[in-house]
Amino acid sequence: MFDKKIETASRAEIADLQLRKLRHIVKYAYDNVKMYRDKFDAIGLKPEHIVTLKDIEKIPFTTKNDLRDNYPFNLFAVPMKEIIRLHASSGTTGKPIVGGYTRYDLENWATCIARILSMAGATDEDIIQVSFGYGLFTGGFGLHYGIEKLGAAVVPMSSGNTERQLMIMRDFGVTGLVATPSYAMYLAETAKKLGILDDLKLKYAFVGAEASTAEMHKALADIFHVLPTENYGLTEVGGPGVSGECKEKCGMHVNEDFFYPEIFDVEKNEAKQEGEYGEMILTTLDKQGMPILRYRTKDITSLTYEPCKCGRTTARMARVVGRTDDMMIIRGVNVFPSQIESVVMDMPELGNNYEIIVDRKNYMDVIEVHVEVGDSSLLTNYSDLENVVAKLKAKMKAVIQLDVKVKLVEPFSIKRGEGKVKRVTDLRKVYEAQKETI
Amino acid sequence: MLVKQLSVFMENKPGRLFKLTDTLGKAGIDFVTLSIADTKEYGIVRFIARDNAKAYDVLKKAGFAVEQTLLLGVEVPDRPNALAEVIELLEKEGINIDYLYSFALFKADSAKILLKVSDTDKAVSLFAEKGIKMLNEKIL
To answer: Per the CB < 8 Å rule, is B67 touching A377?
Structure first.
């Protein structure tokens, strides 16, 4: 364990530490960031009113719009000379989200990552290839310095040029891969296609930056012969390093001395119980550059505080099942892309790449799933292909209670991304947008 | 005794068959047979190439979903009822035909038929017993 003392502390010790850090950061944010001072003053809240951990619920949420409105540096709590690194989100719409880090912040960030890599099995003996993009995106540099802190050798590959990635992986004897789950899958498929799987020494795949499912992990494990573990974070609270899976793969251990997680029903304004799913709210407990209080992540997950089989006592968050903003409502039914992914990944006859198209025909929502065929021997006659389609439809119906149109497509015909992948095309939104412009 | 055939999964949209034939053509691979059934969304292109093993590798590397199947090949005389006699044999033994296609080579006085049947081994021994001439890959 990288930080045994904190990773195995008793729940009471963790709560004590969190309360101490929370009271400090609330006062620090109030004193140094105008937006927080304004938010507190507007409702007559003073930092002294935060006496217990539960009191955190008195603090107003911070939203993505708050971060955009304060673009680029208005949420920084220190003068620019203290900031030594800037990052920003990819942000497909509007202004990007900016993060500013002091030297102290970067040290802590590396610690959080080193813990996560270590709990997934990595040691200073490992050679770890970072196939996240390097740049403004927090993923590349975030993982990079964590790997160095762990003492493993980092291969700063960045994203792109898949065949070269695999050549380096083979020639350097790389044992760990850092990538988005979809890019890891693409690397695995390509390695298989090139017939070099047996030449690789990979043991671990540390996947993050986009949500994945148990079935996707299984597919990665089967093809790549690695232990895939997921880690979680977001630019708004500093990037990756909020939490990560240990080898037991039963939830992601939250770095609770740096982040305070809540699961909340925002509409009803009430906290969810342990084990219940809801939106994750995150508070940074130990940040100098840009402290963030109660950030609405929009990620839907749950928390458990049971000690883990690995010996750690930190809270574990479930895999993110969806985002409040990527939930599709199709004919009144709530559908998450992750539900469709789990069905596709669970069928060995099919490949691992798919896309979802939602449309409206004759005033009715229709959902269509395109899946690449696998290369299994089942695919040599029509009746087998028809059976595969029928089976996929039946499974979809069982999981999402809707009739789904299924279309089999050729291998490698669905666009792959090297970063986050866009799986859903909602044509209904395109119509809405057109209507508005008219 | 049996003939190797390659099957390629293909979406029914323009340019796909070109990509297949072009990929093979550029690798210097000839078709011996080629068969496509028409369907709405996707089809299976079935063919025998002059060098099947090479064709398989080339297509795999190019990212096609390709699979090998073993077919039964028979040569029947070019006269009425010849094919019916062969099919009758299979039917009597309860062997189903999944699909079948025929092809001809130059200067042939017989027709060549390729069959995918439900029980290949049984059909092979049946044809051997009845003296029906089976094709091997060399004839192609």
So the answer is: yes
Whether A91 shows a pLDDT value over 80: the answer reads: no
Q: Do B116 and A411 touch (CB under 8 A)?
A: no
Provide the shortest C-alpha distance from residue A326 to chain B (in Å).
29
Strand, coil or helix: B20 = helix
**CB burial string A211-246: b at 16+ within 10 A, e below:** bbbebbbebbeebbebbbbbbbbbbbbbbbbbbbbb
Provide the shortest C-alpha distance from residue A195 to chain B (in Å): 9
**Which H or E run includes B130?**
helix B120-130
d(CA A102, CA A379): 56
Spatial separation of the C-alpha atoms in residues B115 and B97, rounded to whole Å:
7
Q: Which of A132-141, A347-356, A377-386 has the lowest mean pLDDT?
A: A377-386
Contact state of A381 with B98 under an 8 Å Cβ cutoff: yes
User: pTM here?
Assistant: 0.73
Pick from A380, A407, A411: CB nearest B64 = A411
- Name the residue of chain B whose CA is nearest to A380's CA: B7
How many Cβ atoms from other residues are within 10 Å of residue A401's Cβ?
A: 12
Structural domains of chain B in order of their starting residue, each with its CATH number: 2-69 (3.30.2130.10), 74-130 (3.30.70.260)
pLDDT given at position B138: 64
Q: Give the C-alpha separation, B38 to B48, whole Å.
A: 19
| Paired strand residues for A280 | A263
* pLDDT at residue A93 is higher than 60: no
User: So what's the pLDDT on residue A418?
Assistant: 65
* ipTM exceeding 0.95, yes/no: no
Helix (H) or strand (E) holding B83: helix B82-92
Q: How far is B15 from chain A (nearest CA, A)?
A: 13
Q: At what angle do helices A103-119 and A138-150 cross, to 10 degrees?
A: 70
Is the distance from CB of A177 to CB of A200 less than 8 angstroms?
Answer: no
Residues of B in contact with A379 (CB under 8 A): 7, 9, 44, 65, 67
Interchain proximity A382–B7, CB inside 8 Å: no
Whether chain A has a CB inside 8 Å of the CB on B67: the answer is: yes
| B71–A contact, CB cutoff 8 A | no
Closest chain B residue to A195 measured between Cα atoms?
B61
Residue ranges of domains in chain A, CATH in brackets = 1-323 (3.40.50.12780), 328-437 (3.30.300.30)
Give the number of other CB atoms < 10 A from CB of residue B121.
10
Cβ <8 Å between A380 and B7: yes
